[in-house]
Amino acid sequence: MSQPRIVPSRYLNASTSLSNKSPAANKSSANPLKPSSATRVATVESRPTQKRRTAPSSSRTAVKSSETAKGKLPVTNSASISNSVPRDEATTLPSKQEKASSILDALQLAAQMQSWLYMTTTLEQQLETSKQSAQRALETRSSELSAEEMDIANERIRFDAERLLDFYEELADPALSSTVPTLVRAFLQCEDTYSRITSEVLQLVSQPLHGRLDVRLFNELLERIATLQHEYRDLESSILKVPSSSTVRDQASVVPLLQSLLTHNFSGKTDGLAAVAVQGDGVHVLDLSTLHPTISHTLGPSTTFSCPPVTRTRSDNGVKVFTTLVAVHSSPDVLPEDRERTVWMWEETLSGGAVSAKAQKKKKSAVLPHPVRHIYASDDLPDHVLLVGPRGELTVADTQLAVHGSSTPSGSSEGAAVLLKDIFFLRTACTFVPSRTAASRGIVSVTFLRDQDSIRVLVRVVDPEGTVHSAGDCLIPLREPDEEVCDVSCSASGCLSVLTRMGAWYSFQLESPNNIALSLRILTNLLTLKSLTFIYPPSTPASPTTLEISLAALNSSHVLLAGISATGAPELVLLLWDLQYSVLIASHTFALPSTLVRTKRRGISIDLVASESQGPAQALLVLSPERNALGQGFSGRSACSTVLVVPFSVPVTSTIANALGRASAGAAWVISKRERGKLLTKSVDPAQGGAVVAMNTASNQQRTEGVEEAFFAWVREEEARLAQVQAQTREEEGKPPLGHLFVTRVLEFVFRHLEGYVPRVLRYLLERGAVSSVMVAGGLFPALNARQDWQSAMLALRTVTDIPEDDMIALLSKVVQSHEQSVSAGEDAMQIDSVVPANTAGLPALPTYLALCVTYSTSPAALRVALRRHLSDAADLVPVLAVLDGWLARWGKEEVHLLPDCIKKDAHGVLVPLYSAHEPANLPPQDKVLAFLQTLLDASFLALLAHPPAHRLLRTLLARLQPELALLDEIEQLRVPLQPFAAAHARALYEGAHGPPKTDTRVDWRRRKKMAHEQAELALGLYQVEELVI
Predict the structure, then answer these.
(1) 330 sits in which H/E element
(2) DSSP secondary structure of 341-404
(3) Where is the composition biased (Low complexity) (predicted)?
(4) What pLDDT digit, counting tens, does each position of 570-608 carry?
(5) CA-to-CA distance for 339 and 335, rounded, in angstroms?
(6) Are 295 and 313 in contact (CB under 8 A)?
(7) What pLDDT, on a 0 to 100 scale, did the predictor assign at position 82?
């Protein structure tokens, strides 16, 4: 039986196999044809494979075939076990078979060696051939490049020579030959002086501070620095005045070379300047690097302004020309009918850092067709100026203030739209403007308007020719349509935000998905701010701190907020927000300037303006006193404003990487959801808290019927609980208690939405007497007026005690107008075209409502002001006087009851008079009617005298009042004789209720006796009069 044996593979390492063979094979290993080093490395990395072959072998042969050059590998168990034979059989094999096997292995190894040597030799020859080819290609390309570079070098030498010749030719120009050497010497001298002064300053500040340092050293250095600054300004002005030579090419001009020596930018931009208008003083242009005025126009204390000024800078032959524009509110030089419509313009050149007095007197004036609230002058529209009116009007004027074109917002009620803010951007920087409907270049105007109970954003584009194109408008959805907006912001990327007085901060994104129409989407969830002074709840009236907030959009969704902290000492707060992720990026707090007057009753106004330049990012923060009610100036002799420059660093775009880890950074300024829930149910019992949460949920879902169901479900539960408990300490048996905070929360839900108003809940609270006017945002009567709930208004006059006189008389004016319309319709019954306005339908009758106004407790001064404001027309007062005259006529027919009908003893045994009720039905008390009539005549008597139809009523009233006055005179005569009896009766009532007065033991009895004796000697009784005749 033949035994299988393992032979080396053809890919086995030759050197390894030779080392493991017989002596004959070892001799062949000394052959000089051995493989190269590369071949050796390759063979070492190969792996041996084993093939089975039928031939006599032994286990020793199998072990040798598994060895490598790096060491011996273990033999596989399958090969060694399956091919092994008994030891006694292996020793009996003939030696000839072993020799034949060794010869066969040597032949196989020699064949493998020859194949490797052939492959190695071929590869080395190919490598050498490739190297020679590459060398020849590189030498050829090097020769070509050398030839080309030689031509370029010749061209460069020729170009430099020509440019140098042109430069020398320009220096030889007579206009420059006498100027340039002087300027260069002056510049070198300034540079040398600057180096020396800098060294001296550093040496001085490096010395230790002690009393031996002479102050004169510092003063001398300051004087030398001031002299150097003056010299530098003179040098700057001289360089800018150097004329450019027209005989040479622009690239060889000397003027750019000289201007490059200066450290400022003279490209005509106004990056380092800011125009400021000071009420009652003038217009100043400030240099932001030093905060010193560069240009000042002092206009006197009688001049006020209606909007901030604007300054445009341009370069004319190297000389900076400033153009300043401002809208004037009042001035001795402006006619009353031209106020707020007059624009003044100055144009002057800056020579040596100062403006000549002659240039300051050159003032241009123009009157526009509408008042001006904002002026914008951009370098991208050098020939036009944009002016915005209070109703959103946009007027385009030329450099001489001649009107070129205008645009008026469409779709708004006439006179109802009010400008909130207007923001301008470069058209090339705006990404939200529809490209198919707007010009590709120009200025984009984003206007925010309040139109009745809605907020609109209007986008318009002004092209380089001055034509205004409409790019679309959108309604801004707010939680409360009538929320008072404090400020708005908008960036060039279309991220806009709206901040309300309740601290609600909305964020939206303007975009045009199809490049045709403009749309608005909500960017992120609502933020509710806290700990800032401008925030106050809707139940409070207007606060003097409303203007202590300002927003400035920077880029992308980054917004800078400036306000005053409400916790602790008031401090100025700067907050940098990323509205896309609702996180606070950075914050800074510092003390208010000491020059600013701020009290609890008088706040300040904050204005934040971000720089539009491409240079260092900075913003202007203007802090000024609060304006008075007329808005024509500032109150107080020592009122002053402060302008701060706020540098900031903000990422170019809003990324989630910058927002990571900053979720808790704004916790001190934002109300969280948990805090909002706690505030909602704070200071109310659990049952009321559950009702508040249910009403809030229904109100947020705009389910007004859900608010009513939740409230009356709570009422039924409380009434059932009180019926079971049988509480005896309540004011009203079986009525649930109503706290102030709970009622305020309920009223907030009742008046949250204009549509779907819930009057049933309000009337329940009014009947319970739990409502006050200040619980409702803006007042109870204005809210009822907006919802035309006249029945609740009548009920409120009976149960609410703090209704302002202005709100009450405002509704009275509507009632009077409705009464006049009904009277005119009754007189002309054939007039079928007369239609009662929808907003006055259902108003109460004039006598009914006037009776409530007459009996309501009011202040005469506030009532006079309200009558002058809302019933200024004498024709509207005539119906009111007619009703009052009718009431006085009825009171004149009533009998006067002086004596009581009967007397009886009270609970303390004292006789008291009893009067029967003589009050006529539907007739107010006479004293209330007379008090209201007196206030009405005090407020409008002159207007009634100028109105002839009122003369008859005035005479009638006089005729009715004269008998009453005569009766009062007669009754007044009874006052003196009846006074002792009235005093005795009052003393008897008091003693009956409280007992007789105790004797004052602190007075000595001797003193009392002395006082009684002196009184007796005087002999003066109560009605005894001494007569002295001279």
Answers:
(1) strand 319-330
(2) TEEEEEEEE-BTTB--HHHHH-EEEEE-SS--SEEE--TTSTTEEEEE-TTS-EEEEETT--EE
(3) 17-33
(4) 899 999 999 999 999 999 998 888 888 787 778 889 999
(5) 7
(6) no
(7) 39
Rounded CA separation 3/61 (Å): 13
pLDDT at 318: 65
- Bridge partner list, 589: 573
d(CA 652, CA 39): 60
Q: Within a 10 A sphere around the Cβ of 368, how many other Cβ atoms?
A: 20
Residue (of 719, 716, 714, 705) closest to 743 by Cα position: 714
**Which among 756, 754, 748, 803 is positioned nearest to 779, based on CA atoms?**
803
Whether 44 shows a pLDDT value over 80: the answer reads: no
CB atoms within 10 A of CB 955: 10
Q: What are the tens digits of pLDDT across the range 644-703?
A: 888 888 888 888 888 888 888 888 898 876 665 555 555 456 677 778 888 878 877 778
Backbone dihedral region for residue 59 (phi beyond 0: left; psi -120 to 50: alpha; all else: beta): alpha
Count the helices and strands in the chain (H runs, E runs).
28, 34
- Range list of H helices, 788-856: 790-799, 805-827, 846-855
CA 1011 to chain CA centroid, Å, is: 76
Question: What's residue 37's pLDDT?
Answer: 37
Task: Determine how β-strand 403-407 pairs with β-strand 417-426.
Answer: unpaired
Task: Report residue 52 as tokens.
Answer: 């089975």
Residue 918: its pLDDT value, please?
61
Residue 116: Cβ within 10 Å count = 17
**Integer angstrom CA distances of residue 29 from 19, 20, 111, 385, 994:** 8, 11, 13, 100, 144
Output DSSP code: residue 354: B
Dmax over CA atoms of the chain, in Å, equals 188
- What is the DSSP-derived secondary structure letter of residue 75? P
On the CB side of 4, CA atoms within 13 Å amount to: 11
Q: How many residues does the chain have?
A: 1030
The strand pairing partners of 604, in sequence order, are 625
Cβ neighbourhood burial of 642 (10 Å; 0-12, 13-18, 19+): middle
Q: Which residues pair with 459 in a beta bridge?
A: 446, 472
Whether the predicted pLDDT of 964 surpasses 50: yes
Cα(251)–Cα(253) distance, rounded to whole angstroms?
A: 6
Element (H, E) at 1018: helix 1005-1018
CB 14 within 8 A of CB 116: yes
Q: How far apart are CA 624 and CA 639, in angstroms?
A: 8
Q: With bands split at pLDDT 50, 70 and 90, how would you rate the model's confidence at 424?
A: very high
Beta-carbon contacts of residue 443 (< 8 Å; ≥ 6 apart): 376, 378, 380, 381, 386, 424, 425, 426, 427, 461, 462
The string of pLDDT tens digits covering residues 805-828 is: 988 998 999 999 888 888 776 555
CA-to-CA dists, residue 357 to 230, 297, 343, 361, angstroms: 20, 10, 21, 7
DSSP-based three-state secondary structure for 417: strand
Q: How far apart are CA 540 and CA 545, in angstroms?
A: 12
Give the containing element (helix H, strand E) for 476. strand 468-476
| Cβ atoms of residues 416 and 450 within 8 Å | no
What amino acid occupies position 601?
R
Helix, coil or strand: residue 680:
helix
Instruction: Read off φ and ψ for residue 948, nearest 5 degrees.
Output: -55, -40
Classify 5 as helix, strand or coil. strand
Nearest-angstrom CA–CA distance, 878 and 954: 10
* pLDDT of 65 higher than 60: no
Alpha helix segments (H runs only) across 828-897: 846-855, 860-870, 874-893
Place of tokens 């002299």: 227
Going from N- to C-terminal start, the domains of the chain cover 4-135, 176-259, 672-803, 857-1030
Q: How far apart are CA 452 and CA 415, in angstroms?
A: 10
What's the pLDDT tens digit per position in 204-235? 777 776 656 677 778 788 888 878 877 877 77
Structural Rg of the chain based on CA atoms: 50
